[in-house]
Amino acid sequence: MSSNKDISPPKIIKDRGSIHPINNMKDSIMSLLVSFGFEIVDGPEVETEEFNFDMLNIKKTHPARQMHDTFYVEKKSNLLRTHTSPVQIRGMLEKKPPLAFISGGKVYRKDDDATHLPMFHQVEGIFIDENVSFAQLKDLIYKIIYSLFGDDVELRFRPSYFPFTEPSAEVDILSKEGKWLEILGCGLVNPIVLENCNIDSDNYSGLAFGLGIERIAMLKHGVKDIREFYKSNLDFLSQFK
Amino acid sequence: MKIAYDHLVDRIKEKPTIEEVSDNLLQLGHEHEVEGNVFNMEFTPNRGDCLSINGLLRDLSVFYTCDINQKIYSEELNSLQIDFKNLTPDICPQISFLKLEIDKIPDKYNGYLNDYFLDLGVNKNNFFTDISNYISYETGQPTHCYDADKMNGRLVLQELDINQEFETLLNKKINLKNKNSVFLLDDKVINLAGVIGGKSTSCSSETKTVLVECAFFKPEAIIGKSVKYDIQSEASHKFERFVDPACHDRVIRRFINIVSEHANIKDISAISYEFEQNKVIKIPVNVNKINQIIGINISEEQYLNYLSKLGFLINNDLILVPSYRSDIETQNDLAEEVARIIGYDNISKNDLNIPKGKISNNYAIENKLRYFLLDEGFYEVINAPFVSGSIDNSIKVDNPLDSNKTYLRTNITDSLLDNLLFNERRQKDSIKLFEISDIYTSKNNEIIKTRKIAIIASGRVGHNHEDFSKKINQKHLTEIFQKALPNENFDFQILSRDSLDTKIKNEIVCCELDIDNFSPEVLNYKQTVKSPDNYNQYSPISDLPYSIRDLSFSIKDFSKRESLEDYILGFKDEFLKKVYIFDYFYNEKNSEIKIGFRFVFQSPSSTITEREVNDIIGVIINHTQKIKGISIPGLN
Which CATH code, of 3.30.1490.20, 3.40.50.300, 1.10.150.120, 3.30.930.10, is assigned to A19-151+190-240? Predict the structure, then answer.
């Protein structure tokens, strides 16, 4: 004797799609930072040299401004932003401190190989208030890294150089294989940048940080070749449901 | 830049191990790889002062007792008679020349000079050029050696708008174009200033009389030149990153000293030109500010002690920045020096509490659209914006990566079509994609940004027994989208395949809409899919072809159906990519269920063979044949 269940059609298993792993990673990080108190701001990908370089204390002589590193458009009247930092500049010009912004999105550099792409994604954050210190920046970075990689991850801070922060640091985490991997750049906002944005650097200081989304997504998902993210291959995309 | 451990440690009293030096270099912010006994350094672009043995020792002096003052020639120098004119003092505010004659060219090098070539595997050229290269390694100051016998005439340094061929001392012919700072000898270019010298005046193994040029070029005059002319130039690498403008006398005297240790000097004369006085940067002593910036509490004595170790002078309440530290101008710069010495990892963290900010709702509509599309089986893609074709309002890239990427795209659909064809070529029979992106155009010199969503689909509606035989078409998509989001007009269009390089006939349906045109009603959509809350580990994908097999079963004993489904849908094999029920029919009259399974096979390493597929299918058939009441029609 057969039951109705035995003869009923099989349950329809609908194919579900997936958010692109880079957007998913970006959204996760931005949600984390919003939970820390940051507000999301937006800015254009086609930027001016003024916002992308000058306001950020990136001097005319800086190698990043060369034609071999930056995509210029419309007879050099504009460029494709090389980082999301110009959004912070726009935010600082619009609002008065204390302020805490994050921005995320596509950025462009003139690279194309197995580890670099001409388009990639960043999330950046900035916090401006009275007496913001490097020690507080460290506290924030620890919170971010622990949230992303777990409380038991080992990390280190290394001095580095970004024209828009001083002191500047790069942060590495120790991989399971025992290799140090660079995860983010950060620092205290260079007072020159604050002054460029009409913020009195005698009264205010700030911290800033930036993460490369592809790097973190590669580590989290175990993707070895950055180009896989942008082939739009369904075999690849269907793994991130 | 490669720096040998032995060359450093020879000048460090404490004789630290290579591991200790490596750790301290890292603490100071000098990234490197240790390759045998050599540090392969990667300095940040603001630390041009470290591009030498002396530079690195100056930084390591915070940990060790370092000997930076090598022996120099200390006698008075005769004034060099030279017919030289600097027409670009703004670019080259300091320049010195040394003329030196020896009686015999040495046939071997002593101690440290020999070690330099041996330990770093550097090729030797000729006596004077070899010393010049070593001097650059030791002091960080590039010098250029002319064969003095070839230097008869008027020497002029000038920035010229020039168009002429120039042969470098490495026998490379380059076409100088546009503005270049050059040295001219009787109006002929003999040296691309700060980058590379010319062949016509270069030293050879016969040269006994040398004219050494020791200059300070401002970085902006040099930057980009080596890339422009595709020249590997250590000199330009250093000038671009700033060299010490106040080191000329010491460098020239060191040059003479090294020569004197290898040959008898018959004649020496030198001259220095200073067209602009070096400015000493002075920063007020303010330890409270330093403590506030870093978030520490050190005493003023400790603070000044740190700076003294790095070569800073303290004069009353002012800190005088050494001439080689072009990167130090502000209190924040000094704070970084202190933090480096303490060690970033040794600075304790202080609690940071950020007041809650405003929650932005800018992306609410597009996020809701995203999840609706996920529910309907669409995959999100991201494409780079560079395309070959243009329309009237396209934005042109001045320096594209290649000629196929000259413009910014003005629509997303073309990118999605490429993605769809890419997947069709990989035997995907149900393709549903979408992308959300800003699109940039130009109108009357204004950049216009539009946020858009584009959707494309083709092939089967789905991989289940109900949707398998249905094809995606305009009507189908319109109905689904209308049902879920009744207030929106997606306006699906059919894309012609006429000009596409494909034999597949499935209808391609697409739409592209401004996000701003969606109504807030979208937010009422009740999504079923959630974003993944864990990070799936990716399995490498294969570009090799699929092999597809279908198996149809006849079920007479309906109670066995569930176990058949469980077995087949749960079957695992490394070559089995996917299995699903593509057909189901209950024949009440015959009291029979017919159920069809589709198996998709792919090998990660080579094209999967018939035999490999048959072996796997054989295992499945063998198992299912043991289930009573289930048969495979046509098998026996």
Answer: 3.30.930.10
